[in-house]
């Protein structure tokens, strides 16, 4: 029997879903990881927060139960190091800090509420900039339920990073401040004026699903053209949530958020005149694990 491989886990408490990702380290020099488990539970915390301002007691109890389950799973997989991060919904919830303190007490899981800039930095930490196939000016865009994170890379250098309170669940709850759209528009126009041709790198469950629905993933393409995204957005936006579920075999918690997600991506693409979206199928959880690995190497 071979030696035990280093095992890492990330918990991402988002506005739409709560994920647990567990990976094993296959090659430390790469580093190269193998995914051994991914669990996604659609608690939809943002629907409470963006309409009421707090997380209801019912969803708080569900979150505590879920953290206990994730703790048991990490023990079963003999995880060496893990980190739990909460993003936009927990940031905005008036009782967010109290809930996190209760979870730490009852499960032993310490949760970091990260701000938009740290979230963007963690996502950037997926080391996309080291991919030799991705050259030139690239805007990394991660669309979540509560916020959208952006990172501009030019020839592998991080030039600009920002977070906006524009997300799919916020849009469904009519909770996006118009000033956030204005700030996004101004920032992107300034970037486009300075850097010229820009393509996107898309991150998040919605762009991954849109990529699959477009048919481009099956062809082996590294992403999809913006026109392909416009086409599938046009088809989806004409349908009710129930019709999207039936026609495209979408889960209910994906069928409603996928249209506002496409809208956000298309708004950004149009503003910077992007023609293509690279989709490497990674996200915040992967970045958390990359960060854990780096910290472990330092110790």
TrEMBL record:
Domain Ppx/GppA phosphatase N-terminal, chain residue ranges per copy: 40-291
One Pfam assignment: Ppx-GppA
Superkingdom: Bacteria
CDD domains the record matches: ASKHA_NBD_PPX_GppA (cd24006)
Positions in coiled-coil regions: none
GO molecular function: pyrophosphatase activity
Protein name: Ppx/GppA family phosphatase
Origin species: Candidatus Merdivivens pullistercoris
């Amino acid at each position: 029997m071979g030696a035990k491989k280093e095992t890492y886990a990330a918990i991402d408490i988002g506005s739409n879903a709560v994920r647990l990702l567990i990976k094993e380290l296959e090659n430390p020099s790469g580093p190269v990881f193998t995914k051994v488990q991914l669990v996604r539970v659609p608690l939809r915390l943002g629907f409470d927060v963006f309409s009421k301002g707090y997380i209801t007691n019912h969803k708080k109890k569900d979150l505590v139960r879920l953290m206990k389950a994730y703790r048991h799973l990490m023990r079963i997989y003999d995880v060496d190091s893990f980190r739990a991060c909460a993003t936009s919904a927990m940031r905005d919830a008036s009782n967010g800090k109290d809930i996190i303190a209760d979870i730490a007490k009852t499960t032993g899981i310490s949760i970091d509420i990260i701000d938009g800039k740290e979230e963007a930095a963690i996502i950037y930490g997926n080391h996309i900039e080291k991919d030799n196939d991705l050259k030139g000016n690239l805007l990394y865009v991660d669309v979540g339920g509560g916020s959208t994170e952006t990172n501009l890379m030019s020839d592998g250098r991080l030039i600009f990073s920002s977070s906006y309170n524009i997300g799919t669940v916020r849009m469904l709850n009519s909770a996006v401040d118009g000033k956030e759209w204005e700030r996004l528009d101004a920032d992107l126009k300034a970037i486009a004026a300075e850097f010229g041709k820009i393509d996107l790198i898309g991150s998040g469950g919605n762009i991954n699903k849109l990529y699959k629905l477009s048919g481009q993933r099956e062809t082996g393409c590294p992403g999809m053209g913006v026109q392909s995204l416009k086409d599938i957005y046009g088809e989806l936006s004409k349908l009710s949530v129930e019709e999207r579920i039936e026609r495209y075999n979408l889960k209910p918690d994906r069928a409603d958020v996928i249209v506002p997600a496409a809208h956000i991506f298309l708004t950004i693409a149009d503003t910077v005149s992007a023609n293509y979206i690279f989709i490497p199928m990674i996200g915040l959880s992967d970045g958390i694990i990359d960060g854990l690995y780096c910290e472990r190497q330092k110790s």
